[in-house]
Amino acid sequence: MSQAPLEETGIAIIGMAGRFPGAASVQALWPVVREGRDVISRFEVADLVADEPDPSVLSQPNYVGARGLLEGADLFDAEFFDYAPAEATHIDPQHRVWLE
Fold it and tell me: Which residues, 6 or more positions from 16, have their beta carbon under 8 angstroms from its beta carbon?
């Protein structure tokens, strides 16, 4: 079995983009990874109670009051994506970022 020339089988990555907790771009992510920085936000119970519609969830043994936060996740342009502002508030922030 012969191999095809490299020009026909090669793959080139020509660009990459992303937003991450603690890093607004791929370039900003590498120092975070290299330095082993912890970019997970941990919350006090009082803060969690204010955001959790069902406070009984907080007492579950597997509940972790922490998450990675993306800066600017609240800046979703609902009108551009043809969502009513009230509807956009119910879209998971991860989904809103994916749409962007």
Answer: 26
Phi, psi (degrees; rounded to nearest 5) at 50: -65, -30
Look up residue 80 and give its two tokens: 């551009």
Mean per-residue pLDDT, 10-25: 86
Q: How far apart are CA 13 and CA 57, in angstroms?
A: 43
Sign of CA dihedral 20, 22, 25, 29: negative
- Is residue 80 pLDDT above 80, yes or no? yes
pLDDT tens digits for range 32-63: 999 999 999 998 877 787 777 787 888 888 98
**Residue 2: predicted pLDDT:** 65
Residue in this structure with the two tokens 């749409």, named with its chain if needed:
99
Those residues whose C-beta lies under 8 Å from the C-beta of residue 60, and which sit 6 or more positions away, are: none
Token pair 């330095």 is found at: 35
Which letter, b or e, does each residue of 69-86 get, where b requires 16 or more Cβ atoms within 10 Å of its Cβ?
A: ebeeeeebebeeeebeee
